[in-house]
Amino acid sequence: MKLIYLIILFINSLFSFELQKPKIYKDQNIKGWYMSEKLDGIRAYWDGKNLLTKNGNKIYAPKKFTKNFPKFELDGELWTKRGDFENIQSIVLDKNPSKKWTKITYNIFEVPNAKGDFLQRLNKAKIWFEKHPNKFIKFIPQIKCNSKKILDKYLNKLVSQKAEGIIIKNGKLNYFKGRNNNILKVKKFFDKEGKVIGINYDKDNTKRMKSLQIKLENGVIFNLGGGFTNKQRYNPPKIGATVTFKYYGFTKNKKPKFASFMRVRKEE
Known about the structure:
By secondary structure, the chain is of the alpha+beta class.
């Protein structure tokens, strides 16, 4: 039994990494921080040998995709273009990598556990790929922000181009792990995930979905009826699926206001 326990501990330790996670921007002082577009793709951590999802599951990228990747860690987003999440997800999470991987790029925004401040860490990866080129590598542009006015202007510009939002980070610090006040998510709306526990159908058409019964992590249950296409209403997410929706605050009963369906999220 002791041997089995030690083996389990060893296996778990292989995936015991903790990445940086943003908190929500609420008018904090962000003068001198760095802002960048928040890409809506699949987050991928390079541990020096393999690409892993944020939950530690292996991503089966083709060998040519990770050619010339360094032995040190990287953190980034597997992405194609704005508004293409479902396509990205289907390509990246397929255990049998297809030719569609040629459309994916790895957009680096951090170098975990490297020495130095934010830009120094990024520069380590930039120098590496200058010497060891890879056509799938990109670096997400980092723009210095000196006021809330500049932040708002940049956010409005990106949102008008159908971007998801902004990540803003204190660039003076050494690398840190976990959810932290020194990295913030800035959006026009909030988003959240919930599990489908039931399906409500139209009274006049029992084949057409009216809304989904969603259970949040805190146990709150509500009906999600907005944001679906007609095609999705005839082929709704299955019970047990995890869906992402956007919303604009909460009611007094702690239910999301003006919730609107965004997508079904597969296990990452």
